[in-house]
Specification:
By secondary structure, the protein is α/β, with parallel strands linked by helices. The chain folds into 3 domains: 123 residues, Methylthiotransferase, N-terminal domain (Rossmann fold, 3-Layer(aba) Sandwich); 227 residues, Alpha-Beta Horseshoe (pyruvate-formate lyase- activating enzyme); 59 residues, Nucleic acid-binding proteins (OB fold (Dihydrolipoamide Acetyltransferase, E2P), Beta Barrel), CATH 2.40.50. It has 15 helices and 21 strands. The strands form 6 sheets. It has a 6-stranded parallel sheet with strand order 2-1-3-4-5-6, with helices on both faces. It has a 5-stranded mixed β-barrel with strand order 17-18-19-21-20. The longest helix has 24 residues. The chain binds 5'-deoxyadenosine and iron/sulfur cluster (SF4). Iron/sulfur cluster binds next to helix 6. 5'-deoxyadenosine binds next to strand 15.
């Protein structure tokens, strides 16, 4: 029996895929170990979305090359999006890299490793599938508070900057039944929060059911206390879903809505197929139907052809919408994408840097102001773990997905506790636990 050390880079979908990989290889007489020192095989589940993700892996491969030479490890495998997009380049890196497997090739991993160990060969596979959803694999989750479920794979949107349609292939959805069964399992295993994953969850469909139907089914049939999802696309955000969220307490009042840019010409070149006016309308509708909802976003600065004036439009939309938080990235040209074939990566690095700094400054200010409006409120917090800064404090999250730090009480991770917010920073709310008022007496006191 060989020991595997698995490293996961990138998004939550990769975290989930790593659980699938653990499940597939554990069933095939491999065992996973928590430290590289105990392993003969090192697998890296990689990301390709920006160049710095690639650089990180190349750097790691150099380290692994040394370990292999010294006989400390035997086999190195690269899995996931970078494996899919750089298959030839990685294959040329042999003998350092023995196994290369794309996101639809995980069921073949036992065979690929056999090829290496028994036939002294390489194990390379990067066939993308139109059907593979791994619905028949039970992910091997690490016990805790949070679980993930991928309800669909792939993306057919072809935003011009994005490599995902090339690394993860065409869109395909799992059945409602298989998602629901996984939710039941998650519930019975004691997880308190599940995040529903898809590259573009709005495109989910199974028989007559769309994404809003699926979320309604999950909220009403499972007893998981908190259900989140990521990511929807602003172009076809299902309005029905807003009502489903508003009416079901287990569906968290938090929506990640990637804007990418606030200028219509740039949005068009990105092939996002919405305008900033349509985005404003969607935000208004979301806030009207789900009062108190937290909105977060992704922004790319310095996309091909983005002028100073175009960037000012993005700045302006960020100022007007006031997201609770934002992930802001510099445009990074990706091989094979439509943008790499049609447009030049022509915004100078210095301009990208200036824009990202300005937007981050603005967003930090807004996040802090929004967080400070929470002071004095009592919020329900799901405890996750001890705070990294102070072991006498818990770190938990609100329904809106805001981190809350408070003095550790007799509670445990996985417990819900009411916390009164006493101060707030850009990224964190700070408070103290207060006695929980049962919901029924709350209603009584309100009606009196
Ligand atoms: N360059 C920079 N950021 C990118 N993203 C996707 N592709 C690129 C790219 N080529 C960002 C988008 C997306 C997030 C996951 O990563 O903002 O929403
Ligand atoms: Fe990439 Fe656009 Fe698909 Fe998101 S919706 S994965 S940004 S192509």
């Amino acid at each position: 029996m060989k020991n595997i050390y698995l490293e996961t880079y990138g998004c939550q979908m990769n975290e989930y895929d790593s659980e699938l990989v653990r499940s597939i290889l554990t069933a095939s007489q491999y065992q996973f170990v928590p430290s590289i020192d105990l392993a003969q095989i090192v697998l890296m589940n990689t990301c390709a979305v920006r160049e710095n993700a690639h650089q990180k892996i190349y750097h790691r491969l150099d380290e692994l090359k040394g370990m292999k030479k010294r006989g400390e490890i035997e086999v190195v495998g690269v899995l996931g999006c970078m494996a899919q997009s750089l298959r030839k380049t990685l294959a040329e890196r042999s003998p350092t890299v023995d196994v290369v497997a794309g996101p639809d090739s995980y069921k073949k991993l036992p065979n690929l490793l056999t090829a290496v160990y028994e036939n002294n060969n390489h194990g390379f596979d990067f066939a993308l599938s139109e059907f593979e959803t791994y619905a028949d694999i039970t992910p091997k989750r690490i016990a805790g508070i949070n679980a993930w479920v991928a309800i669909m794979r792939g993306c057919d949107n072809f935003c011009t900057f994005c490599v995902v349609p090339y690394t993860r292939g065409r869109e395909r959805s799992r059945s409602v039944e298989s998602v629901l069964n996984e939710a039941y399992r998650i519930e019975s295993e004691g997880f308190k929060q599940v995040t529903i994953l898809g590259q573009n969850v709005n495109s989910y469909h199974s028989g007559d059911d769309d994404f809003a139907d699926l979320m309604h089914t999950l909220a009403t049939k499972s007893n998981i206390p908190r259900i989140r999802f990521t990511s929807p696309h602003p172009k076809d955000f299902p309005r029905k879903l807003l009502h489903v969220i508003a009416e079901n307490p287990s569906l968290c009042k938090q929506i990640h809505l990637p804007l990418q840019a606030g200028n219509n010409t740039v949005l068009k070149r990105m092939n996002r197929t919405y305008t900033k006016e349509e985005f404003y309308d969607l935000v208004d509708e979301i806030r009207m139907i789900i009062p108190g909802v937290a909105l977060t976003t992704d922004i790319i600065v310095g996309f091909s052809g983005e002028s100073d004036a175009d960037f000012e439009d993005t700045f302006d939309v960020m100022e007007k919408v006031r997201f609770d938080s934002a992930f802001i990235f510099k445009y990074s040209e990706r091989k094979n994408t439509i943008a790499s074939r049609k447009f030049a990566d022509d915004v100078p690095e210095a301009a990208k840097t200036e824009r990202i700094v300005r937007l981050n400054d603005l967003q930090r200010q807004i996040s802090k102001e929004i967080n400070q409006t929470e002071i004095g409120k009592k919020v329900e917090v799901l405890i996750e773990h001890r705070s990294k800064k102070d072991a006498n404090e818990w770190l938990g999250r609100t329904d809106q997905n805001k981190g809350v730090v408070f003095a550790a009480t007799g509670k445990n991770p996985g417990d819900f506790v009411t916390v009164e917010i006493t101060s707030a920073t850009t990224n964190t709310l700070i408070g103290r636990a207060v006695n929980v008022v049962p919901k029924s007496s709350n209603i009584l006191s309100l009606s009196r």
